Amino acid sequence: MQILKASKPTGGMEKMTLFSSKEYQPLTESLAVTLAVKMRIFSENAVLSCSEIGDGNLNLVFRVTDTVTRQGIIIKQALPYAKVVGESWPLTLKRAKIEADALKIFGKIAPEYVPVVHFTDDVFAITVMDDLSHLSIARTGLIRGEKYPLLSKHLGEYLAKTLFFTSDFGVNQSEKKELQRQFINPELCKITEDLIFTDPFIDSPTNSFEPELRSAVESIWKDAELIFHVALLKKSFLTEGEALLHGDLHTGSVFANATETKVIDPEFAFYGPGGFDIGQVFANLLFQALANEEKIHEIQEHLETFWNVFVDQYSELWNTENQEPLSYAPGFFDAVIQKFFQDALGFAGCELIRRTIGLAHVADLDSIQDIDKRLLVKRKTIDLGKLLIKSKKEIHSIDDFIKVVVQTLV
Amino acid sequence: MQILKASKPTGGMEKMTLFSSKEYQPLTESLAVTLAVKMRIFSENAVLSCSEIGDGNLNLVFRVTDTVTRQGIIIKQALPYAKVVGESWPLTLKRAKIEADALKIFGKIAPEYVPVVHFTDDVFAITVMDDLSHLSIARTGLIRGEKYPLLSKHLGEYLAKTLFFTSDFGVNQSEKKELQRQFINPELCKITEDLIFTDPFIDSPTNSFEPELRSAVESIWKDAELIFHVALLKKSFLTEGEALLHGDLHTGSVFANATETKVIDPEFAFYGPGGFDIGQVFANLLFQALANEEKIHEIQEHLETFWNVFVDQYSELWNTENQEPLSYAPGFFDAVIQKFFQDALGFAGCELIRRTIGLAHVADLDSIQDIDKRLLVKRKTIDLGKLLIKSKKEIHSIDDFIKVVVQTLV
């Protein structure tokens, strides 16, 4: 932790300031404070403290705090590589711009659920935004047993608004195309294409699973019907630009407490099928029920609330804000919602499987200490994933979906 | 017609040359010749003639010819407005760049079916390309009763190659996204969205039809099931970036003779559903059979050849050039082809209807002099259009399709 006085920069400091360099460099705690000072976010004589609090996977995250008022900001900087596989996996810094631009757009559409962006710099891949340290990462909190009674309602509203107002129904169809151009995001999409839709379904060296699961995993690779459906879901992800997606909307991208919910980290944002974001929420809520049978009712309520709020809100926007002249066509709304739902089930199935046997796991499952229980839960997760992918067209409602989940759990 | 000697430009000419101006100006025949001279396409002492040969709708088209060798080139320049509705409908000049870029890409993929581009200038919205005056516009030729025995085979090959090699199956998936960015084409897409998918299905002032057709047209506007399907087709057009489409592949965009076929005018190019291009070909062949019952066998053969060649070629490319790791999934190829086919039937239906009652008609129908026959043909065209849109999922093969067409005709 670095502590510095927020006094007016001296000539000497000016020279060493961040933006005297024209080339990207990773920030240090000291440089992060200098940046905060230059931005005059804090009062002139504030004494600031700074810590790097990121999980260090793809980004540096500095929290700069006024040591007296305790008010703070977050300075997030993209790293030019993914640490998860060492420095050998270079990653475009452009994702910081995608993330900042997406935060601004989503923030305009659903300000109650998105942190305010104060400043961005494309060269340094920096986004300065609200400090959310009074909230917890939803995944971590849920694993700790915290309750977020409004989480699902908030996420339903967030997605109804963002998926509607960035689609051809909610925005001028020409403007939507310019947004689509702005959010062409090949490098981050490739991570999803590989790690969610491809590698878990073939014998790829990126996969990672307990040796005891090998036969279950091999049965995935040999399941022609499953691979067929995954191929179609991948095609949908590759081609269907329905709305500006968050693109990585798992519970680790959500900050929450009992009353507040903020969606962060949209660096995977791109124009894709709306059901992908919905499916990520489905799946990442499901991990909690899979890992803890006693949570089934809590998660069931979350799933129902999330979906029902989403449909209600989307329906209201459809009826009041629609820009599509043919939107009045009888049955059109239902067809759009049904597609979201079926897509979401399929994408949720892919997420369940890839978080169990692919490269990037979730703590909900991996933190289960008892090896027998963990293996049992993971087998159930795989089974539920396969079922959702293959049977998505036979699951017609959120009630059907809950029934399928409960049947898998018992 | 302007005749000029292709001698080396004098100092005086240099001053007045086209590109001494930095701003767009419409070419004259004289300026077109100056440009040809500057490009040194012709030998130094050639005597050149020049005529403006465009239909004057959206573009100026100059043919510059060596009066001795008869060799020529085409200089096409976009106009900043659409003449079809007067100068009041401004149109982006960027479409010249879209067209030139698309010609280059399609020319690389299917050189036998695309004119060579020699020169482009974005500011002046100019494309210089091969002169195709030894060929006829296929629509005009077909109306005159000319036979193009290879037209359908060539179009099948052209579309198999262009739809495959610009899709996620035929090109690196990151490169495809950059192409998609390059071909975001809001203004030209809006013309299609309005004139094909919207206006004909509502009581829009852009519609144009014989008063005798009013009750048939009103039955379209009141047909809830039809509008529902059109809304879904429009959504597909708006969201599904399967491949780089020509975007306006009617028989007026095709030059042909007995042995050769060239596809021109891809200024509507964008990433959309492959079935749209296929459907435009279906529909524009169908106009010929609708207008002339005695041509049903000729057109039936064209439809069968076009589709079967398309499937054969696409299948070969799928099996030999596929870049999608999951493409081996049993049933995936069939699902992709089936989607192309059903989409194409629906899009063909929209084209049949809009060319009958919308803003832009086709000479195949409008040139029928006998008013009773013309009305009968137009009613059949509307009926076939409605049937294809509503029943596309029940038409499973090209044979089924032909049967439906024949039933409508008799």
TrEMBL record, chains A, B:
EC numbers: 2.7.1.100
Catalyses which reaction(s): 5-(methylsulfanyl)-D-ribose + ATP = 5-(methylsulfanyl)-alpha-D-ribose 1-phosphate + ADP + H(+)
Annotated binding of ATP, by residue: 59, 76, 265-267
Protein name: Methylthioribose kinase
HAMAP family tied to this protein: Salvage_MtnK (MF_01683)
Family: Belongs to the methylthioribose kinase family.
Molecular-function annotations in GO: ATP binding; S-methyl-5-thioribose kinase activity
Boundaries of every Aminoglycoside phosphotransferase domain copy: 50-284
Annotated positions binding substrate: 248, 354
Pfam families registered for this protein in UniProt: APH (PF01636)
Naturally occurring in which organism (per UniProt): Pseudoneobacillus rhizosphaerae
GO BP, one annotated term: L-methionine salvage from methylthioadenosine
Encoding gene, per UniProt annotation: mtnK
Protein function: Catalyzes the phosphorylation of methylthioribose into methylthioribose-1-phosphate.
Subunit structure of this chain's protein: Homodimer.
Keyword Ion transport: no
Keywords: Amino-acid biosynthesis, ATP-binding, Kinase, Methionine biosynthesis, Nucleotide-binding, Transferase
This protein's pathway: Amino-acid biosynthesis; L-methionine biosynthesis via salvage pathway; S-methyl-5-thio-alpha-D-ribose 1-phosphate from S-methyl-5'-thioadenosine (hydrolase route): step 2/2
UniProt keyword annotation of Chloroplast present: no
